[in-house]
Specification:
The chain is an alpha/beta fold and 395 residues long.
């Protein structure tokens, strides 16, 4: 099962399989492309194989029934952090950071699970457990590279009785939901699921390629992908005191965004459909396209569940964020890529499902409802393109 998932490049590198099976049976490692993937150390039993099928978010995502392009929603608003320092530092106006800080400071959770850079490294990411405003803010900026988000999750849950808010990409949210679905003893451990909109996860190799444009031979001592402005600059700091920076359009648009894995290209959920609150950049638009001119951070928030509604209302009432009404139709222009992907995803999944023998189980995401409303010619072209990609990656 693990080899089949890897063969078709469906692994997202979350590490959940290693956490559940134990490293004596399954171990995560970096491959030559700069992505994490599991290596089966011992043969798995039939029950373990069945468990992996239900746990792996690369092949299994199950949601309550969604219908529209943007999924289930209770409310939609455009917001930003009331604290100007948080708004400036965070990647997208600081709403995700402010939601987490509010949950902590108001005693709604004991800690926040979020991804940050590994201590002592400029490059590698890991899951952080934040207990304070300062720790949440330290990990506030986006990390456009892999992370073993869940490879320690059983250990974390078993080592304390803390209640968490969990911040992640949509596939991370799906992974956590899969895990708790199979291990219901942990159901009370995650109170809030907060998702960012995601256009794909670049490899570590892509990050190295980006900073190497500086011409430096030595590795950076620290690096950020964006933030300290909106969208902010990719900035690498070197030991000699020099810095190298690229605009968001240059770093993501021309390098990082072109080095995402195959699973990201067929992702059935880039908009956090399983989250309590999903947050994305509320881009200014110019001639129908996002305008990445530096500005004050702003994002839209889709509140999907009663838990998310409660958290959002508390964050607004306590003055952590400021918000205004937003017409959901505006998101089509602000997030044109996500809109297009939602419409065409079903077409991209058809050849994958056929060639893998029905390995994918994506339920409740309105994939086929959206595919049937897409342009037939464009859909068929996407289906053909995906088929060619699969053939290419499998030699």
């Amino acid at each position: 099962m693990i080899d089949r998932i890897k063969k078709y490049h469906l692994c997202i590198g979350c590490g959940l399989c290693a956490s559940v099976l134990g490293e004596e049976k399954c171990k995560m490692q970096l491959n030559g492309e700069g992505f994490y993937e599991p290596k089966a150390i011992q043969p798995l039993s039939p029950s373990e194989l069945e468990l992996i099928k239900k746990l792996c978010p690369g092949i299994h995502i199950e949601a309550k029934a969604h219908k529209g392009v943007w999924g289930a929603m209770i409310s939609v608003c455009e917001g930003w952090a009331a604290d100007t320092d948080i708004r400036h530092k965070a990647a997208s106006g600081g709403v995700v950071t402010s939601l987490a800080i509010c949950a902590l400071e108001q005693g709604l959770v004991d800690a926040v699970l979020q991804v940050g850079v590994r201590d002592g490294s400029y490059l590698y990411n890991e899951l952080k457990i934040s207990h304070s405003r300062e720790e949440v803010l330290r990990n506030a900026q986006s990390r456009y590279a892999p992370a073993l988000v869940l490879h320690r999750i059983k250990e974390i849950f078993d080592s304390s009785a803390e209640c968490f808010a969990f911040i992640g990409k949509p596939c991370d949210i799906a992974a956590m939901k899969n895990f708790i679905g199979q291990f219901p003893q942990y159901v009370e451990r995650v109170k809030y699921y907060i998702s960012i909109f995601c256009a794909g996860m670049p490899s570590y190799n892509a990050t190295v390629k980006t900073w190497q444009m500086s011409g430096h031979q030595d590795e950076p001592v620290s690096l950020k992908y964006r933030g300290d402005g909106w969208p902010g600059y990719f900035v690498a700091h070197f030991e000699d005191g020099s810095n190298f920076q690229l605009s968001y359009n240059e770093s993501w648009g021309k390098i990082l965004g072109h080095h995402v894995g195959f699973r990201c290209k067929i992702c059935p959920d880039g908009i956090g459909m399983l989250a309590d609150v999903a947050v994305g950049d509320s881009w200014n638009t110019k001639d129908g396209y996002p305008d990445f001119t530096e500005s004050d951070g702003r994002c839209f928030c889709i509140v999907r569940t009663s838990a998310g509604d409660s958290l959002m209302k508390a964050t607004l009432a306590k003055g952590y964020i400021k918000a205004k009404a937003l017409d959901i139709r505006n998101i089509k222009q602000q997030q044109a890529y996500q809109y297009k992907r939602r419409k065409l995803e079903g077409w991209r999944l058809i050849p994958v499902q056929l060639m893998t023998g029905g390995l994918l189980h994506f339920k409740g995401l309105a994939i086929w409802r959206q595919a049937l409303s897409a342009n037939l010619r464009v859909g068929l072209r996407n289906m053909q393109g995906t088929y060619k990609r699969i053939k290419k990656i499998n030699g």
